[in-house]
């Protein structure tokens, strides 16, 4: 129920294939000076996600975090940042089915 991404190659405009034991799809991420967005688009199967781990650029911290499943906001139980590792814990497990996407957006600042 935890999925995480820390792209090293072009994290400011990144796309890569991902797989879990029950699903596969595309992970994409964009970053600019103040905003980071990430999206998990499931193409086959279904992924149960309760915890999301992302990397923020350099020493920047994330705030004003929003997680949406097909445009519907998901309730965040808590978030924690350790260095550039940001962990987001959802209140409930989100089921991301084939054809659906989970989108994470956050403000980033020094």
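-> sequence recovered:
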């Amino acid at each position: 129920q935890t999925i995480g991404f820390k792209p090293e190659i072009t994290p400011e405009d990144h796309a890569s294939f991902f797989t879990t034991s029950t699903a596969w799809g595309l992970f994409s991420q964009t970053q600019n000076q103040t905003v980071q967005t990430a999206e998990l688009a499931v193409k086959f199967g279904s992924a149960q996600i309760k915890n999301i781990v992302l990397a923020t650029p350099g020493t920047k911290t994330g705030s004003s975090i929003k997680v949406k499943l097909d445009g519907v906001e998901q309730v965040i139980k808590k978030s924690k940042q350790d260095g550039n590792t940001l962990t987001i814990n959802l209140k409930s497990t989100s089921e991301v089915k084939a054809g659906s996407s989970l989108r994470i957006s956050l403000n980033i600042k020094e």
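Strands lie at 2-5, 13-19, 23-31, 35-55, 61-69, 72-74, 76-82, 85-97, 101-109.
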